[in-house]
Amino acid sequence: MAGDDLVVARGVRIPRTELSVRFSASGGPGGQHANKAATRVELLFDVEASPSLLPVQRERVLAKLGPTVRIVVDEERSQLRNRTIAEERFVARLAAALHVERPRRPTKPSKGAKQRRLTSKKQRSETKANRRSPGRDA
Asked: Does the model's pTM come out above 0.90?
């Protein structure tokens, strides 16, 4: 079912069935609610076993994130909200790992840029030369 997939990038969809989700009690302050409610979410994704990634994509993700992607969220009181945040962070992290930087194409300064630079240097040199005290020759 397409509605059960997380869209990571164009052509990359991860079914929610590939994600392992565990819930536990979140630590810290919060009194009885924090002690009883299992609102902490731990989301695990096994990169090596995922059939949703192409071999090239799998290698890229393994190189950047390792064999397992682990997201832990315990910021909200709601288990559902924490799960949503964990899925959003997972999608963002996976998308960043799949992103390919375009190679930089080396460029050269234009003729006008070279001319402006030399003119600026000449002006600066004259300004500094005018600051000097006149020598004995003058």
From this structure: no
Q: Which residues contact 21 (CB under 8 A, 6 or more apart)?
A: 41, 42, 43, 44, 83, 86
CATH of the domain at 7: 3.30.160.20
**Segment 56-66, tens digit of pLDDT:** 999 999 999 89
Residue 37 lies in a domain: yes
In a domain, 137, yes or no: no
Task: Give yes or no for a contact between 45 and 20, defined as CB atoms under 8 angstroms apart.
Answer: yes
Q: For residue 39, which of 85, 70, 92, 90 has the smallest C-alpha distance?
A: 85
Beta strands in 16-53 (DSSP E): 19-24, 40-46
Model pLDDT for residues 55-110, shown as the tens digit of each residue: 999 999 999 989 999 999 988 888 899 999 999 999 999 999 999 889 999 999 99
